[in-house]
Amino acid sequence: MTERVDFLVVGAGVSGLGFANWIRERHPGASVRVLDREDEPGGYCRTVVRDGFVWDYSGHFFHFKDPSIEAWLRARMPGEDIRTVEKRSLIRYAGRDIDFPFQKNIHQLPHDEFLSCLVDLFFRPTGDGPPRSFGEMLERRLGRAITAKFLRPYNEKLYATDLNTLDVDAMGRFFPHADIADVIANMRPKGEAARDGGYNATFIYPAGGAMQFVRALLRDLPGGAVATGEAVVAIDVDAKTATTTQRRIAYEHLVSSAPLPALARMTGMPHDAGAFTSNKVLVFNLGFDRKGRRDVHWMYFPDPAVSFYRVGWYDNILGSDRMSLYVEIGARHAEVLDVPALRERVLADLAREGIVDGHRLVAHHDVTLDPAYCHITRTSLLEAARLRDELARKQVHAVGRYGGWTYCSIEDNLIETRALAQKL
Fold it and tell me: Considering the entire predicted model, what is its pTM?
C-alpha cells in the first residue's frame, strides 16, 4: 500500500524538524511525514546522560544572529534552564595558552615568534590573481608564519586533508579574519583587549543538553508525524514516490537533509561521486571524579603530536562539580579507527598537556560522526549546485550542512528551511 503526504521529510535532525514546523505554520492543513533511519530523532544533535554527566554527540552550542529564531525556540522550551555563556577559548601552543583567535593574539607569543608573525603579516605574499585554495588564502591574508604556526596544522588535523585542496571560501563567515589593524588593536594591556568577536563569542546551552532543542522542535508536531528506525532506500523523482524499509510513500514535495551524494544515489540522479569528500570525527566524552581547570570552555591543539584537535569543558558551561570533557579527533573518511587504543592515547595526551592531573576517569562514551566536515572544493561547489538545482526541478529539496554539502551553523539550517517553507 502507498501512503500519500503533501511533504515528505528525510532526516529528523534540526533541518528536517525545522522544516516540518515551518511548513505546518504556513499550511496547517498540510500532511507532513518525517523519517529517520536512526532509532531516535535529532541527527547529530543528540544528548547522552550517563552517571550524572550530560554529553552531546559533539559540542552543539547555539549562537544566534537572528533574534526571532532564538525567541521562536525559547517559546517552545518553557521552564528549561538555558545558560547564556560568554565564550572563553584558548590555543595550546608550544606549552603556553594563547587567546583565540591566534591571528589576533600573536603578541602573546615569545618575542621572537611574535616578531616573525608580525613581519610576515606585513610582508605577506601578494601572488598573481586571486588565491586558488584555502591554504594559499591563509598565507596571502595572514602571512606564512601565522599560517605555519597555527592555521595550517590545526585545520589539517580537523579536516584530515591538505588545505591546498579546499576552496578559498571553505569556511565562509566562520573563519576569523584579521588584518594588521585588528592585530595592533588587540595589543592592549590585559583586561582591555578587544573581545573575541567571533560568530559564537556568546552562546546558549540548555542544562539538559542540546537534545532539549530537538524536543522543542518536536513539541508542536502531531503524534505520528515523525517515524524513526525507518530508512529511505529509493526515491522515484518522476513518480514522486519514496520506498522505505517499511512502506511506500507518495509525496508532492520531498525535503532531505541526508548527505547530498546519498540523496543522489537514492534518486538515481547521475552525479560525480568523487566531488564529495569529507572527514570523520571521533568524539570521546569523558567524565572525571573531580573538577579541573575553571577558566576555559574549549581549547585548540595544533600540535600534530597531540591526538586531538579540540577539547571542550561541559562542566564549565553547566557549573557542575566534576570535570566533563568532549575530545575530538579528525580522521580521513576511509581510516579505520582503533577506538580503545585511541581512548588510552587521549587520556595520556590529556595528562601530558596538564588537563588531567591525577583525575580518575569514572564514565565515558564515544561516537564517530561520519561525515563530519564536508571538504568544500571548487569541484564540490559546482557539482552540489548543479545537483541541487536538478533535484529541485523534480520537487526534491536538499537542505542543511550535508544536504547542501556546505559549512553552516544550526541557526543557518533553521533560517534555510524557514525560507524554503515560505517559498513552497
Answer: 0.94
